[in-house]
Amino acid sequence: YMVQVSESAKKDLKEGMKLYNSENNIGLKNAWNIIQAEMKCCGVNDYTDWYPVLGENIVPDRCCMENSQDCGRNSTESLWKTGCYEKVMSWFDDNKHVLGSIGMCVLIMQILGMAFSMTLFQQIHRTGKKYDA
């Protein structure tokens, strides 16, 4: 179901783009700006994803290769052409060994925590001390 998950994620991201200029979602606006600046990408699939949200030939300034005030207005030459979905998925693909290692460390810590809590429970039970809850 990778194709369906991918299409659903793209659809949800495009729905989130519609809230970019709303007053109550400054965190969403900052997140889009940071991702586009750090990943050097624009929109979900490409920069044209912003046209229904901001207007024809208008993209956020963070989509510009050289960021300046109002650089995203009527500019198609100096924009990042790659979509952010593709960039993020390639980042996950490049760093899957790191993410897997972190997941395994968390798993091992959880298992050790359960083992030590069971050992402590058995030790308290053997001594015969009963505590009322």
Automatic annotation (TrEMBL):
Keywords: Glycoprotein, Membrane, Transmembrane, Transmembrane helix. Pfam families: Tetraspanin (PF00335). It is a multi-pass membrane protein. InterPro entries: Tetraspanin/Peripherin, Tetraspanin_EC2_sf. The keyword Metal-binding does not apply. It is found in: Membrane. The chain crosses the membrane at residues 98-121. PANTHER family: TETRASPANIN, TETRASPANIN-9. This is Tetraspanin-9. It comes from Quiscalus mexicanus (Great-tailed grackle). The gene is Tspan9.
